[in-house]
Description:
Blueprint: H1 3-8, H2 11-32, E1 39-50, E2 56-67, E3 78-82, H3 93-101, E4 105-109, H4 129-141, E5 148-150, E6 153-154, E7 156-161, H5 163-174, E8 178-184, H6 190-194, H7 210-221, H8 251-263, H9 268-276, E9 290-295, H10 303-314, E10 320-325, H11 338-351, E11 363-371, E12 378-385, E13 398-401, E14 407-411, H12 428-437, E15 447-451, E16 459-463, E17 466-472, E18 477-487, E19 493-494, E20 501-506, E21 518-521, E22 525-529, E23 534-540, E24 553-559, E25 563-566, H13 579-607, E26 622-630, E27 636-645, E28 650-654, H14 661-668, E29 676-681, E30 684-685, E31 696-699, H15 711-722, H16 731-738, H17 753-765, E32 771-775, H18 783-796, E33 802-806, H19 810-816, E34 819-824, E35 827-833, H20 834-838, E36 843-848, H21 851-858, E37 864-870, E38 873-878, H22 886-896, E39 901-906, H23 910-918
Parallel strand pairs: 3-4, 3-7, 7-8, 8-9, 9-10, 28-33, 28-34, 31-32, 32-33
Antiparallel strand pairs: 1-2, 2-4, 5-6, 11-12, 13-25, 14-24, 15-23, 16-22, 17-21, 17-24, 18-19, 18-20, 18-23, 26-27, 26-29, 29-30, 34-35, 36-38, 36-39, 37-38
Helix pairs in contact: 2-11, 2-13, 2-15, 4-5, 16-17
Amino acid sequence: MSTRLRQLLTRRRLVPVIVVLVLVAAAITWLAWPAGGAFHRVPAMVAVQTGPGGRQTVELDTTTYVPDKASAGTPVPAVLLAHGFGGSKLSVAADAEKLAGQGYLVVTWSAEGFGASGGRIHLDSPDYEVSDASRLIDRLAARTDVIHDRGGDPRVAVVGGSYGGALALLLAADDHRVDAVVAQITWNDLGKSFFPNAAGGPAASGVFKKLWAGLFFSTGMTSQGQPAGADPSAPPVTPTVADPRCGRFAVDLCDAYLQASTTGQLSPALTQLLAKSSPASVLSKISAPTLLVQGQTDSLFPLSEANANAAGIAATGTPVKVTWFPGGHDGGSPSDDVTVQQQTLGWLNQYAARDGVTNDASFSFSNSGDLNLQTGRTATTELAAASYPGIFGSGAPERLTLSGRPQNIAAPPNGNPAAISSLPGLGSAGALASRALGAGGDLPGQVAFFSTPVLAQAVSLTGSAQLQLKVAAPSGSAVLFVRLEDLSTSGRPSLPQGLVAPVRLTGLAATLDQAKPVTITLPALAYRFQAGHQIRVAVSTTDQAYAMPVQPASYQIGLGSGQLTIPQVTTVGTGSGWFWPGVLGVLVLVLVLAVTAIAMVARWRRGRAVSTVDEEVADRPLVVRQLRKAYDDGFVAVRDVSFSVRRHQVVGLLGPNGAGKTTVLRTMMGLIQPTAGEILLYGHRVKPGAPVLSRIGSLVEGTGFLPHLSGLDNLKLYWRATGRPAHDAKMDEALELADLGTAVHRAVRTYSQGMRQRLAIAQAMLGMPDLLVLDEPTNGLDPPQIAHMRRMMRSYATDGRSVLVSSHLLAEVEQTCTHVVVMNHGEVVADGTVDEVTGESTSVLIGVDDPEAAMALLRHADEVLTAELASGGLVVELNPALNGLSRGAVVSRLVTGGIRVDRVSPRRHLEDVFLQLVGEDRK
């Protein structure tokens, strides 16, 4: 690593980069899922009868996510959400919350042998795991808050990935109450998955995928989880394992695996067990519309698995949709992919919620290796086709010429040393490791190469390429590993997605001239080979991910037809629709915000000093002391400004344009530095980036909302950017005070100016900060909304909180605020309670029980100049000639006349005082 690179990866620079990546990921995730509703969780240990004939009782650890709106009067569709191998109900908790927020009643559970559930792992056996899931549907059938299509038939979809994906397919075949299926990165025939053979034939003829199998087995030895009702943030519980040899596996499955891992062969016992756990034999029984999502970076369950499942389900006319996404077991979960999230929710809305069924059968995939014309580098592009073409394309394939002489290669004893093409869970990272050991990770004498000419134009491969090989072996059999490599213009090889085709051949001729061509089907890809590159086929005798023959061997390898068949797919555009332009906009915004934040942090780090607290004012939300701000051109915005805000106060900051109010507010927020003086928040001096600023919520610099997101999503995005825990946002309290109602779920672009203003105020109140600072909060609000704003500010200033509001609406300030600070020409000209500032007045409001009778008594009184009816009494202008005696005389006259007087208060308006203080002094 170069010195420059080490400098770039210092902690100071790395942390902001990580923050940017987290913000980007969060922004994309929020865009994929619409705003959600409220829900609650119900954990429970559920006893089910399991095993052949249901003769065993096992407790399953479950959690049900129930939308708050669900009831007998408004039932909702249900979703069974199954976890992957080695996981538990906690593994899918985040996805369950998202679906519950969309109005689905979601049931999660830890499968037998996982988490806190009882039982042992039977690998999605119909007698165990599938039967258990069917019993959970029975429980849904007893609920009145779930939609029922008929008696005992709840509206339910099944969603799962990998282990859970196979369960979803097997359950749909076994229980026809299932209305929709989303199966992700799962298998078709588990025997062929772990014993693949790219030359065709039964699983018994395949090559054992030993590293993946070993990882599976070790994962099932002890599976971590928590019992129902446990705190999700608590450390996971590791169950006690009674059998150290088999862990939590069923004994028959354990014995069969140990035999396979020892011999590298598929025994009849394991064949039977894997067949029971494979959707392959029951696909024709599936009548529920099925979405199949398969990963393009997956050496465990490659794209061919979804292809076989799709063909079997569609054969009976069941609606099927297939999506390939740029992830898989070797890198990237379906729940992290935005397109997959969108399609999953859309599929459930169509077939479980029955919200406008469109029978969408389009096919989307991510084409890697595309050339970015702006950067000159390769990238990934999301594409779509009108329908799923299968792994052999939808039109005439492209045929490229392969050339290369026959070559002799050798297999070492026990396959050691071996080439490294892939590593479980790391995919193409294994190929990168192999390149560090040698060109292409190939070992001398173990590999034969055949290449196309240099490509005159780019070639897109969408599916499984095929070629013919001739293989000769004195022993009559061979185990080989075939790879499709991309040779750059410099001759450097790369292995797309780190995928390899294992081949086991028997009945081979001893010499190549007697050998018959064998068709090899390579792993399905969506990849674009650029013009100027070459496509190379590598045939190796070793691959560390697979079991290899113990005995050394030698083979002769040659080409058959000499052609490489490349399947083609006619695309109809991108598979993203509106989404990615929106994402790009969000990314730009997030990056701008991140760069700004990084600059502020850097500035704070340069100027930080030891923080001290002024204990005398530590209990005051705000203290402004002799604040002065002068600019380089000589203009003085504020001079010697001092005032304070105490707990429970609503303080109005008043002044004409140019009085210095905004300068004070910006300084208070740490946005500008004062020339002299200081601002203290709870005794802490304000500086840019000061931690105490988190105790302020503000609406000072405008809204800046993303128009295509809902109001709620904007608020969530803002809060996530603060880095504070989600539960600290107190979202419900802020939304209740802002009174946005159901509009919070609409896109902000549909909001009026008043609605945007109320959303901005809700954003300022997130976390219920101790001091709320609002600059012109009533802009764009109509009179009823202004009245609500008045009540909201008064309500907010409770529990030790305070409000500072800057406004031009003096009448509203007078009715709302407890205190006012009046500024003019950068100075404070008045400061105190509203009554103190308005002072005594000859205009008074007299509250009486009979205003009409009171008017008649005072109409000709000497003490009164004028009297007018007002709400709750009279507004009386007293005679100033009586030297202050008129107020008492008026009250005495009313009481003597039988009129009850409830109150007498001055009616000198704040507006009058304001104009007196600043109106005649404007320059």
